[in-house]
Amino acid sequence: MSTSTTKKTTRPQAFTLIELLVVISIIAILASLAFPAIGGAMDSAKKTTAKNAAVQIANAVVAYETEYGRLPTNSGTTVGSALMSILTAATTNNNPRAIVFLEAQAWKKGKGGTNASGDYQDPWGGTYQILLDDNYDNRMTNSFPKLSGSGNESLTLMKKVAVWNTNASTKLLVRSWE
Fold this sequence. Notes:
two-stranded antiparallel ribbon, 2 helices, two-stranded antiparallel sheet, 6 strands
């Protein structure tokens, strides 16, 4: 009785270098496709944050007017440190009851807030502009930046307060009344 021995060659269960490089290249391609989507989602989140802040500023001014029967004094058209000190009750000159109408955090990239000089800024570092209905006719006509394209458009708003940001890129523009 003769026995024949057959030798089986066993290959180790491992990836070859070529297989590994193919997998790495596929992952790199998928990651490069995902980065623009992540950037778009981040811009959308910043735009939502800026819109929310613009609406909060407008609501704070309306609440101030409801409480004191007049709009807060604001020199200029920016949401600057003087207006912020009134709305946040940092000083009691024009807010004698020290009511906090607006809570503002220190500015953080992508979040917005007050900068070192006390101005309220959007998530990109731009400033918010404000227009108040000083004659109380509930009508404001002004030249506002266009939401699409470049330049300005003349609008008449039936509001007491209008807030918008002044970012150079029109795709990042937000308005409190829309």
